[in-house]
Design a protein that fits this description.
With 697 residues, this protein is an alpha+beta fold. It has 28 helices and 21 strands. The chain has a six-stranded antiparallel sheet, sandwiched between helices. The chain has a four-stranded antiparallel sheet with strand order 3-7-8-6. The radius of gyration is 34 Å and the shape is elongated. It starts with a helix and ends with a strand.
């Protein structure tokens, strides 16, 4: 988003007259008439550029000021609601809006409302060159000090774990409840094989279902074609997709975007670690900075790219609160899956997390399989999921560990036969990964199981029958042979075609028009998974002193520290100057409050022109004042902070919400207040309000 002195001046000039002239009188003094808003905005810029004034404004910055300003710097052009979500848990809503209003009145930030009706926040470009040296990512992501190191054994997803999980689902009858959770028999069976991993199992099941790797019918079934596509991805990409898909069902683009965000977040966690709160903030910042679409979208050029951009611009914008909730769930999954691991406890009592080191894959010639007695098979780590899938397809997992145990049973072998494996392919797979010969009794049993299985075959799909003179043509036609599942006899072939294919057009293209066409349902073509790149650490999380660009932490020579003592001395001198001036008590109290809020930076501002005439608070006995504030808040769309007695009579409750209606009644008035993202409306007697504050921003 463009942030220039011109855009700032336009935003200042577009303020409501009351707000505009309050600012001008505060910093420029008495306004001469006739006036010109653009000229006044230019004079205000000159005031800010004066070295003495610039220094005073920077001197009065507090740690909280820098936290907010750093957030706006590293998430340039963030909208107000998203910033509120970023600081949720750190500030109450009333504190948040009070701080924004204060920073706006101090000319450190300004806002722009766009066509999407969102209010975007930007740093004042006049002050930005002087501010940059004070803005540091550590204001938002402080480096924690470890007090106690974690002694827990950290779990992490492995390729063997996924293969064992798939084997377990394949060889058992698992069903789901109406809410999508596993039924008790499935939970118990998984607990036997993966003890202590109940939550991990629930998340994995959700992820596999959302990714289409499993399908729910009478039981949970495995989609082998899609699994093969998934297994071709790198382990990091697999785990990132699982984390994102375990949180909710996403569109293909949403899945790519969130998975890539997770990879970038994990790659950006420093070696010393971050608290969970800081990791969530880091993910939020990376998400706000704009999604780097990866290798696939970087190739988009010209008109096609413009069409995509236009389509995305018309999409409904993401809700900031929903996005924050999704990030929370996705990061919880990353911790549960072991991509982010606990390092210890900080001096503040918070848990510290670091990025996990994934288990490396072994060399391709590894032979990790050992066949033991009674058809028992042990598997050591090192193989990729792509190698494990055909191996574990005919194995039934019994226990998972550093060395996992499986069995070859008639049921597991039959499952492999169903997928197209035969005796030779099973033997070949075992011989590839086992350093010893296959026991003879195992070979005999597998052969007997296959003979029994193939005694009768039921075919399902498209069957092509060609005349004798066309057999050679069909068998040498690559467009037909590509889909031949099995040759049933001379001139008759079982085809595995996508269900959405245009059959007539397909055979005409092959030069062999189809006659007497009868269709049967077959599997649709499986799409590839979204293309992800490796996680990338952005410049702004690189240690200070190594980066000096628009995204990074300032170099050491640019960094300045807050001089709290100098700021307090400036405030004290302003208070002394005010005390020596001849003004009435109310005027002095008003100006003293403005000094306290750091709106006064020079003694020249201490005049009656700087006194704010607009009232933003009213006490319980000021009934007409409360009505005036409510009417103004409804008109301007501002929030209200209300303090009133608890219904139980014990203490007071503070409520923040948006006023929707004010109905005056005899002797009182009823305020309708929308709270909790408009999901709840309260009717409040104005007479019961003991303190009312309008959060005007």
């Amino acid at each position: 988003m463009e942030n220039t002195i011109n855009t700032w001046a336009e935003a200042i000039s577009a303020l409501p007259d009351k707000d505009f002239f309050n600012l001008m009188r505060l910093y420029l003094g008495k306004i001469q008439t006739p006036y010109n808003k653009q000229r006044l905005a230019s004079q205000l810029a000159s005031f800010l550029k004066t070295p003495k004034n610039t220094k005073a404004i920077l001197t009065l910055l507090t740690a909280k000021d820098l936290e907010f300003l750093s957030a706006l710097y590293f998430m340039e052009g963030i909208d107000k609601e998203s910033l509120l979500q970023f600081f949720s848990g750190s500030y109450q809503i009333s504190e948040f809006y009070t701080k924004l209003a204060n920073l706006r009145d101090r000319l450190l930030i300004y806002s722009v409302t766009k066509d999407d009706e969102k209010t975007y926040l930007l740093l004042n470009p006049v002050l930005l060159p002087s501010l940059e040296g004070l803005l540091n990512i550590e204001e938002l992501l402080p480096c924690p000090q470890v007090m106690n190191l974690s002694m827990d054994d950290n779990f992490i997803l492995t390729q063997e774990f996924l293969a064992s999980f798939i084997s377990c689902v394949r060889n058992n009858v698992f069903t789901l409840k109406n809410d999508g959770s596993l039924k008790k028999n499935a939970v118990n069976r998984l607990e036997e094989i993966f003890p202590g991993r109940a939550k991990c199992m629930e998340l994995l099941m959700t992820a596999f279902l959302n990714l289409g790797l499993f399908h729910e019918g009478k039981k949970v079934d495995v989609d082998d074609d899609k699994l093969l596509k998934f297994a071709k991805l790198s382990p990091k990409q697999q785990y990132a997709l699982l984390c994102a898909a375990s949180s909710t069902h996403l569109s293909r683009e949403g899945l790519r975007k969130q998975s890539q965000l997770l990879l970038d977040t994990v790659a950006s966690i420093p070696q010393d670690g971050l608290t969970q709160k800081s990791i969530l903030r880091l993910a939020f910042i990376l998400g706000q900075k704009g999604d780097t679409a990866g290798a696939a979208s970087s190739a988009l050029k010209g008109r096609f790219a413009q069409i995509l951009e236009a389509a995305r611009a018309q999409q409904k914008p993401e809700d900031a609160a929903q996005n924050k909730d999704f990030l929370d769930r996705m990061m919880d999954s990353a911790v549960e899956f072991g991509l982010i691991q606990k390092k210890g406890i900080s001096t503040e009592g918070e848990e510290i997390y670091v990025a996990a080191e994934l288990q490396p894959l072994a060399p391709q010639n590894i032979k990790p399989v050992n066949i033991e007695s009674a058809f028992s098979v042990s598997l050591m780590p090192g193989l990729s999921l792509a190698s494990l899938l055909p191996l574990t397809h005919f194995l039934d997992v019994k226990s998972y560990g550093i060395v996992s145990n499986f069995e070859i049973t008639k049921t597991s072998a039959t499952s492999a036969f169903d997928s197209g494996m035969d005796v030779e392919s099973i033997f070949k797979t075992l011989e590839t990964y086992c350093q010893y010969e296959i026991p003879q009794n195992m070979k005999v049993n597998i052969q007997e199981w296959y003979n029994s299985y193939s005694a009768a075959v039921l075919y399902h799909g498209f069957v092509l029958k060609v005349a004798k003179e066309n057999i050679a043509f069909a068998e040498n036609n690559p467009k037909i042979q590509k889909y031949v599942q099995e040759k049933l006899t001379d001139g008759i072939y079982l085809l595995n075609l996508p269900e959405d294919i245009n059959i007539n057009a397909f055979f005409e293209e092959c030069g062999l028009p189809a006659k007497n066409l009868k269709t049967a349902v077959t599997k649709a073509e499986v799409l590839d998974f979204p293309l992800l790149r490796d996680g990338r650490k952005p410049a702004f999380v690189t240690p200070a002193g190594q980066v000096n660009d628009s995204l990074g932490v300032r170099s050491d020579s640019c960094l300045s520290s807050l001089n709290t003592e100098e700021g307090e001395n400036l405030l004290l001198n302003l208070e002394k100057t005010l005390a020596s001036m001849e003004m009435d008590k109310n005027q002095k109290e008003n100006l003293a409050n403005r000094i306290k809020n750091r709106l006064i930076v020079t003694a020249e501002q201490l005049s009656s022109e700087a006194i704010r005439t607009e009232i933003l608070e009213a006490e319980g006995m000021d009934f007409s004042g409360k009505l005036h504030l409510i009417d103004a808040a409804i008109k301007e769309g501002d929030l209200l902070e209300i303090q009133m007695p608890q219904a139980s009579g014990a203490g007071y409750a503070t409520i923040v919400g948006t006023p929707r209606n004010l109905e005056r009644t005899e002797g009182d008035a009823i305020l309708t207040l929308a709270v909790k993202d408009e999901d709840e409306h309260l009717n409040i007697n104005v007479s019961r309000i003991t303190h009312l504050r309008r959060l005007h921003f």
